[in-house]
């Protein structure tokens, strides 16, 4: 049986590439995007599209149920470092409150897999030649902080016994 993945931010630049790769590999994909920076035409024809914010827990839960989603690939986030310094509350609302809302829907529906698009910004500016996963995380701006908090939310849910597996990609 083919897995179905909900791809948040799937109408964005990276999301469109991930969508094409998943779709080309034979996975069922559902795109959820609020189109604040994404473009609807980037979504592959025939792929279900839900125009909604990750802050809309009910819309996310409905999409998860309706499409019988097996996993979430979460790319939807605000990502401009300079803007995060100028508008920290906006970044915390979008990236942290949005993640909480998304994870509540995932938990409520019982989706077992979660892939987070995190960032190397969680490391800050480490004084090492080669950054490794164990390098201390000392973000320097609200963007990096919000990405690290997203990782903590996933870690804490797992520690609380929520039945899901997750991975955070720090590129």
Amino- and carboxy-terminal Cα gap: 31 Å
Per DSSP, the total helix count is 5
Give a quick account of the main beta sheet: strands, pairing sense, barrel closure. Answer: 6 strands, parallel
Low-confidence stretches: none
Count of DSSP strands = 6
Radius of gyration over all CA atoms, rounded? 16 Å
What quaternary form is this?
A: single chain
Q: How much helix, percentage-wise, in residues?
A: 25-40%
Strand order of the largest sheet: 3-2-1-4-5-6
Range of strand content: 15-25%
Rounded average pLDDT: 93
| Series of H and E elements | EHEEHEHHEHE
What structural category arises from helix and sheet content? alpha/beta
**Structural shape:** globular
Would you write up a description of this structure?
- The protein is of the alpha/beta class.
- Helix content is 40%, strand content 16%.
- A six-stranded parallel β-sheet has the order 3-2-1-4-5-6, sandwiched between helices.
- Strand 5 (113-117), helix 5 and strand 6 form a beta-alpha-beta unit.
- Helix 2 packs parallel to helix 4 (88-109) and helix 4 runs parallel beside helix 5.
- It is globular and about 45 Å long.
- The chain starts with a strand and ends with a strand.
- The mean pLDDT is 93.
Outline of the structure:
The protein has 171 residues and is an alpha/beta fold. The chain has helices at residues 13-24, 57-66, 81-86, 88-109, 142-159, and strands at 4-8, 28-33, 49-51, 71-74, 113-117, 165-169.
What's the structural blueprint in terms of helices and strands?
Blueprint: E1 4-8, H1 13-24, E2 28-33, E3 49-51, H2 57-66, E4 71-74, H3 81-86, H4 88-109, E5 113-117, H5 142-159, E6 165-169
Helix pairs in contact: 2-4, 4-5
